[in-house]
Amino acid sequence: MKELIKAIDNLPLLFKVILAIPALDIVWGIYRICCALDENDTTALIVAIILFIIPLMWLIDIVMILLQGNVWRYKSAK
């Protein structure tokens, strides 16, 4: 799972934006779930699953990729 996260994190910005278009946004949902599972964070997992089913999340993903270079994902303050 760490390899998947690292591979997606290292993608060029253009490919990240392409993966955020509505038909391919499933990649970012899986990415969020994998990150939450990798960190053993139950709250982040629940948030990732909820975000997975939100229909307009692709739009938020594109904005966040352009602003921060990666999609938004919940990180708990441990």
Describe this structure in words.
With 78 residues, the chain is mainly α. The protein has one domain (2-68). It has five helices and no strands. It has helices at 2-9, 13-19, 26-38, 42-53, 57-68. Helix 1 (2-9) crosses helix 3 and helix 3 (26-38) runs antiparallel to helix 4. The radius of gyration is 12 Å and the shape is globular. The two termini are 22 Å apart.
Query: What portion of the residues fall into strands of 2 or more residues?
Result: under 5%
DSSP helix count? 5
Low-confidence stretches: none
Structural class: mainly alpha
Instruction: Provide mean pLDDT, rounded.
Output: 91
Question: What is the domain tally?
Answer: 1
Shape: globular
Oligomer: single chain
Report the order of strands and helices: HHHHH
For the CA atoms, what is the radius of gyration? 12 Å
Please give the number of β-strands: 0
Q: How far do the termini sit from each other?
A: 22 Å
- The helix fraction, in percent, is 55-70%
What does the largest sheet look like? none
